[in-house]
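Quick start: what a row looks like.
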Amino acid sequence: MINKILIPVDRSIHTQKAIEFAARVADPKETELHLIHVVKKARIPADLEQYMRAERITEPPIDVYLKLMGNQIIEEAERNARDKGIKNIKTSIIQGDPGEMVVEYAAARKADMIVMGSSGLGNVAETVCRRATRQICVIVRRSLLDGKKVLVVDDEPDILETVEELLPMCDVTCASTFDQARDLLEREVFDMAILDIMGVNGFDLLKLARKKKVLAVMLTSHALSPETTAQAYREGAASYIPKEKMPDIVTYLNDVLEAKERGKDSWWRWFERFGSFYERKFGPDLSKRG
């Protein structure tokens, strides 16, 4: 069992992801979670020290500085961890080189695991994992969807609500009609669009999205067929997702973004993801259709 988990925290989304990972592997009652925030060594300005002395603040100036810099960050991370069900939490704010301090703290507290985000703390994560020889070191990788602005278009309100819930890392805008979606595409900038076909003229929206250089993914149920899949590919959709597979939409959208990042066709993993599903639903001879 993992008895002690250490997470260095900052204000980035990657701290949230590290806490989510820790919550999945921790025993809610038994595991001890250590949240630390490392403040880099800094020199307190002379006028600030003078002001503190004038106000008869008895604490050392550097201690006040540490509290001001770290308390809000630590408190936010602790609330997040408690919301995820972790009960036994210890927090510390320390000063020094982040990589060195994390390794030293982990060794002193005999931590079993260190969990860090791949961004936010930047190169510190890789430095810590190289030097921490007695701990399991986990780097929680970023999602390519983080912060992406996504337009979701569907005439079913429950679908819009579900997709928005499945994409908490994105800035999601919803539209329930063709006209709403067209107006949004005309006046706002989006990274991706998720388009239903039936009820909102999805293929017409696809043309507009392509004109605006927006990666458009078709998400459909009633129009699902090999023929409309082939049409989506021909007309430049970045992918085509059956609504039955919607719970895994994060994976499929990341496939599209990874393909763009690596210079590959956006459909590069489509058959791997959906080939067996299509064979069960439509039979094995898909290459002869559409």
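That is the whole record. The chain has two domains: 4-140, 149-288. The longest strand covers residues 32-39.
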